[in-house]
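Mods, move this if it's the wrong board.
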Amino acid sequence: MINFKKLSFRFLLLLILIIILPFQVNANTQSKLINQVKIGIRFGDSATPLVSMYSPSGLELGYYIGNEFKSMISFIENEEIIIRKDSYFMEINGTFIEYDFDSQSDSYNTNIQGPIHIQIGDKFDSLDEANSFKKSLPDLMDNTYIVYEDGWRVWIGLYSSYSDAEAAFSNIKALISNAELRIIAKDSKRIQVLNKSGKVLFMYNTSNETYHFRPIPQKDNPSVIQLDGKSFRGTIIINRYLDSDLTVINQLDLEEYLYGVVPREISGDWPLEAQKAQAVAARSYAIVNLNRHKDYGFDLCSTIHCQVYGGYSSENPITRRAVDETKGEVLTYNGKVVTAFYHSNSGGHTEDSESVWSNSLGYLRGVEDPYSIGEPNDKWTKVYTREQIEEILASNGLSVGRLENITVEERSKNGRVLKVVFYGSKGNKTLEKGQIRNIFGYNNIKSTWFDIMSNADSTVKVLSDLNELPQEIRTVNKYIITAEGIKEIELQNKYMDNGNKMKVIPTPTGSDQYLFTGKGWGHGLGMSQWGAKKMAEEGFKYKQILTHYYTGTKIE
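Not the wrong board. C-alpha cells:
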C-alpha cells in the first residue's frame, strides 16, 4: 500500500531542494546565455551634468520589452542633441555651464535656465495627441515642448524660481484662459533633451523605466552613436541617481563589447594569436564579473578597474577577427569559467594568487615566464628622497616621523614582496602585498617584485666577547671571493640569530635617498600581455598561450 504521507513529504522535500540549490550551468551554456552587457562610461566622480549625442541617421529614444525595442520619439532634424539633467544652467557663448543657484542667485545673472516648468492641459495617452494639442497653441508654439512623465504632457519654460514661474503663469492664463495650468517642481530624476542652440526638444523622467538612445537603423551601416565625439555601438542609457550628475551607460552585445576592449588592453598591431588569447581572457573576465557595478545600474566599467573599453572608436580589423574567431570561447577550470586576470609584464615569473590577495586559486599559480624578459617594463627603477617617502606615508595616515630605514621582511617563493616595514623616529609602519603600490602609485612602484637600496653608509654593533664593549662595523664595502672573482656583499637587511630564529635588525641609516629596483608591471597574476606577444611571435597558438599562463585550464 502506498504511503501518501511519506510520498507527499518526499515530493515537498524535493521541491524545496530544487528551489534552494543553485542552478548549475556548464561553461559553454553560461557564455551562450550572456548576450547583452551594460558598460559604465560615466558614473560617480566621472559623471557630468550634460553630454552631447549624434548619429548620421538621427536618434530615437525608447525602451525594451524583452528583446524588442519600442521607440517613443525620434530626433531626426538636428545634427547634434544635448542631454542634460533638469537643473540650473547658464549659457555662455553657445556653451551651457551648470549654475549653482543656491550660492549665486543674488549675482543678478539673467541668462539662467532652471528646473521649474509649467504644464499646459492634462496628460495624454499618446505622442500624437500631445503634439496635436501643442499645435493648437499657436501663440505659445515656439516655446512649448513634449514631456513623458507618467503619460504624455505639454510643458513650457525653464524657470529658475517659483516667482518667475508664477509671473509666466499669469501671462499664459491671459492668452489661453480655458486651459488648465500647473507649476511643475524640480525633480532629481528628470532629464532634458535640447538642440545645440538650447531649445528644449523633449523631457523624460527615469524613475520607473530604463530608456535607451539609439541610432535610427539603416541597412548596410553599423549602428553607431557618438557620445561627446566618441563612437559606440549599441544604445546609450542616461540615468540619474540621488540628485546626481548623469550616469552614462553603453548597452551592447558581448562580442561587440570585446571589439572595443582587446585593442585597448593590447596593441591592435600585435600578432593575431596574442589578440585571440586576450579576447578569450577578456570574455572570461567579463562573464565572471557581470553586475560588478549593479549599484550604478551596469555590469562593468570602462576603466582599468574592470577592463579598459574604448568603444567603436578603438576597433580595428585584426581585433574584430580575433574576437570573431574565438566567439563564445571561455577559459575554464574544473568546468567553471575563471576570472582571467592579466597584466602588462611578469618580469620573468608570474605569481600565486594568495601572494597578491588571500585566496588560493588553482588556475593562478606562478610559472616561469622567459617570454616577458627583454620586453618593455620587464625592469624598472624609482628613486625617492627620504622627505618624499615621509610625506607619502603621512598623507595616508601612516606617519613614522623621521624615516630611518626600510626593510623587506617577507617575500613570496616567486620573489615578490609580501611585507615591507618603514622604521621611523615615531614608530614603525608595515605594508603588505599590494598596499605599497596602492599608496605609492601603480605607475611608480610598477610591481611588488622589487629590492630597496639606500645611499646610507650602514653600520651595526657586534658583541664578540662578553668582557669587551660591542664593536661597530660597517656593512658596506665588504667583499667575498667567488668563482667569478671578488664581489662586494650587498647587505640591505641585517639579521640577529639567537639560536632559534633569525630576526631583522632595524638599523637607523640616516639615508636621504632610496632606490627601488623592480621587475615587471602589474600584479603578476595570470597572463603577461608582453609575454603573450612574444609567444605568438615565436609561433605559439592562442590556446597554448592561455594554458601556459593559466594552469590546469581548458578553453571551452
